[in-house]
Amino acid sequence: MHRRPLIEALERYRSEHPGEAAMVQRFLAFVVSEPRCFERELVAPGHVTGSAWIVAPEGDAVLLTHHRKLDLWLQLGGHADGDPDVLEVARREGMEESGLPGLEVLDTTGCGEGVPFDVDIHEIPARRTEAAHLHFDVRFAFRAPTRAVTASDESHALAWAPIGSIGHFTDDKSVLRMASKWQRQCGRPDCK
């Protein structure tokens, strides 16, 4: 089953983050019940997306995009468009939206690089011909090879936000949660 790797990754994530068990269970129920969960055309209730928490080479800042459609500072990422390999979706979207030549995936849990750094379910508001829907977002941490970036058409701007003051850029709860996770974990040699 093409959903099995994501199901297993979510189960491992849930065991690492028991405080997020209810949200992860909701995510799992969606993936298990919906064979088309990776398809962007699935609007009700939504679809799987992949995001990239991209840290600077030194690990002290994270790359945020001023998202053109949502007008918010967020992590980079996008639609799976049918691809069940959400790690590669996150990497591809991160590279496309930043102009970075590559991204090194970080094993932030010690459980293997296929375990997400974070997961989130959030609503995307209706706009033009698109109904409001949910993004079941799987996020992976990556290290950038350089701080030289170029914004794509999907973004007003890109910025390296210092992890300790990310609140100056955004009040998005999930971005602040990822910053907190990074600060707790960045003392590990493989996360720096």
Summarize the structure.
27% of the residues lie in helices and 27% in strands.
Features:
single chain, about 190 residues, alpha+beta, Nucleoside Triphosphate Pyrophosphohydrolase, five-stranded mixed beta sheet, three-stranded antiparallel beta sheet, 8 strands
Question: What order do the helices and strands follow?
Answer: HHEEEEHEEEEH
Any idea of the CATH class?
Answer: Alpha Beta
What is the CA–CA distance across the termini? 35 Å
What would CATH call the homologous superfamily? Answer: Nucleoside Triphosphate Pyrophosphohydrolase
Number of helices: 4
Average pLDDT confidence is 91
Specify Rg, calculated over alpha carbons: 16 Å
For the secondary structure, the number of strands is 8
Any idea what the CATH architecture is?
Answer: Alpha-Beta Complex
Strand proportion: 25-35%
Proportion in helices: 25-40%
| 3D shape | globular
Give the count of structural domains.
1
* Overall SS class: alpha+beta
Q: Uncertain runs with pLDDT below 50, 5 residues or more?
A: none
Largest sheet, in brief, is: 5 strands, mixed
CATH fold type: Nucleoside Triphosphate Pyrophosphohydrolase
